[in-house]
Amino acid sequence: xxxxxxxxxxxxxxxxxxxxxxxxxxxxxxxxxxxxxxxxxxxxxxxxxxxxxxxxxxxxxxxxxxxxxxxxxxxxxxxxxxxxxxxxxxxxxxxxxxxxxxxxxxxxxxxxxxxxxxxxxxxxxxxxxxxxxxxxxxxxxxxxxxxxxxxxxxxxxxxxxxxxxxxxxxxxxxxxxxxxxxxxxxxxxxxxxxxxxxxxxxxxxxxxxxxxxxxxxxxxxxxxxxxxxxxxxxxxxxxxxxxxxxxxxxxxxxxxxxxxxxxxxxxxxxxxxxxxxxxxxxxxxxxxxxxxxxxxxxxxxxxxxxxxxxxxxxxxxxxxxxxxxxxxxxxxxxxxxxxxxxxxxxxxxxxxxxxxxxxxxxxx
Length: 364
Known about the structure:
The protein is an alpha/beta fold and 364 residues long. Helix content is 38%, strand content 13%. The chain contains 15 helices and 11 strands.
């Protein structure tokens, strides 16, 4: 397992976690076995917004002696008290559901307390009007909730909450179907979504990724809007390359599926390369680096994707981006203009010219 650090808090989060949308349909013994196996293999971030109430009791049993090794995402607004998934913005309903979730999880604290599923501006207004936001803040002040989060599919609403300096973590759907403006949750243009990712990194807000495979659609050529199947490794790498991303939370329903996902760490750079999606790049993304590293290797050792990422972040106001750039062993001024990267870039970025631009910007 590889780990990334949450800027607001310092927790070390495994880059692959576990969503609960699939596992809930399995018998309790299988849920317990899969969750415990995941922890032993280094998975330490678990999202609890699943479709089945049964996951809570099973997770509580699975993690009762492992609680200090994991981080749980609990959603304020997801309601399981009926025995099935429901959604409520009623304050008393939210309180009952959170109490129920804590009791079944056999824990007295929540690592990440999320305002659940804010996709419309009216949803946020309702949560505020009904007192749910105040309740979540009180839970944070009392120490029951360690970090505040927001789950959403809408970049503009995430941006609003980022501007309020309210949240530490965002749960967001990151995959090329949505980023390229396709599918029911492809909300916001490519440029808007990428700006939101950069805003998260600039403000130290971590992104935990839901729907990395788009419900399996990306893994099936017949269902993918690209007409080509990607692998799980390609989807995971795509998400991890986005600014601000801490962890990817695929759903898996068995120990075997868990191992298939974690095989990501055994794949080569070529096997993770998702540049085949370049044929479907929307107009507002053409000629822009997506940090895919398809241009590698650079003859003089430049990490071209990372240099581009620091440049983009610096221009968006990330005060640490220049510092990170200047610590690189090889920087833009080392570019010899050989054109190797230009010829290999599937997104048609003139990287050698961009290195001159970056050198001038950073003044090095």
